[in-house]
Amino acid sequence: MEFLDNFFYSGNFIPHGHCYLWKPDLVGLHLISDALIALSYYSIPLTLIYFVSKREDVPFKLVFLLFGGFIISCGTTHAMEVWTLWHPVYWLSGVIKALTGFISFYTAIILIPLVPQALALPSPAQLEAANQALHVENIERQRVELELRQYKEGLEKLVEQRTAELAKTNERLQQEIIQRQKSQERMAELLQEVNSANQELNDFAYIVSHDLKAPLRGISSLSEWLLLDYNDSFDEPGKELVRLLINRVQKMYSLIDGILQYSRLGNLKEEVQQVDLNNVVTDVIELLALPENMEIEIKNRLPLVNIEVTRIRQVFQNLLSNAIKFIDKPQGHIIIDCTENNSSWQFKISDNGIGIEEKHFNKIFQIFQKLANDEESDSTGIGLSLVKKIVEMYGGQVWVESEVGKGSTFFFTLKK
Questions:
Q1: Which of 121, 153, 182 is the last residue of a domain?
Q2: What is the pTM of this model?
Q3: What is the CATH number of the domain that holds 343?
Q4: Does 160 reside within a domain?
Q5: How far apart are CA 302 and CA 339, in angstroms?
Q6: Mean pLDDT of successive 10-residue segments in the chain (416 residues)?
Q7: Which domain range does residue 85 map to?
């Protein structure tokens, strides 16, 4: 208690106003100045406290609080200056100044390590530049978002358009599938009809050939018997008529055989094997029994092909016999040649016969179509049609080049 009494006791000290000789103007000056400073010091901490309470993100809050304490203590010292003008409590004033000094010193110590951190904080100019950059970035982002929205809208429209197109295409495809199914069903029906017609045609050809050959053989035999038994009774014109009858019967017999071969061409199958065409052609030439004025030349060695031997023999036999038949020169010359292409063999059979007009090039390959209409010709009009059908069965082609009076060249191809 004694300490407190001494602490607040003015003792023998004189008031501070006495130093100013109690001059009203000087005392008033110090009074007003210290009072204004004290009020200002007291108002600043309140502002700082309000600011810190409103801005939770403000860094260095402890520094703000220390500054607030420092300023309040400074304001208090000025308030004590006013008080000691009349009451010389210099111990209390000194303690307040000491407290103010302690707070000031502590604040200064705290500030030293915070200076680098404070310097690291962006300046207002930097914050303004960053804010400007963010503003530009925001504008750019808005522009990109707008473009993305427009692109999205365009993409959605494109998707809708493509979806509609796909729907139409799908509908069209479904219609085509239905139409194709109907076509396939119709093709199956037509194929069945064709198979039935082919079977009926084969049966008809067999029946016709069988039923017609028997009476033809009878007519041929009777005609020959007439020439043998009644040879003395016929004059020359009668004998010629009987021989003509026998010739007509033989031509009819050959025609029936040709029809039967043509109708059976696609039905009778034999084993496909590797065939040496040199041997085939040699056999065919021997079978044809060439006249003395005929010569067949094989220009190049013929290849080995995979084919039915009977079929290829028919091709060469019909082409060679056809060439021999229509050679009108004293010395007949036939050339067989073969050349190799990328995927096929090309054969040609040339002769120096009567030749063929260009307008008949396609006609001669049709069944029953023949250019010679004389009664002496034994042509049936089936041989070349057989050649065409056989070659096309193996994926080849057949054609002719010819010049009237100089001869003809028949070409055909076979795949390797």
A1: 121
A2: 0.45
A3: 3.30.565.10
A4: no
A5: 9
A6: 55 73 82 82 76 67 71 81 79 79 78 67 69 85 88 87 87 88 83 64 57 63 71 73 70 58 57 90 86 90 90 90 88 94 93 89 73 52 83 92 92 92
A7: 2-121
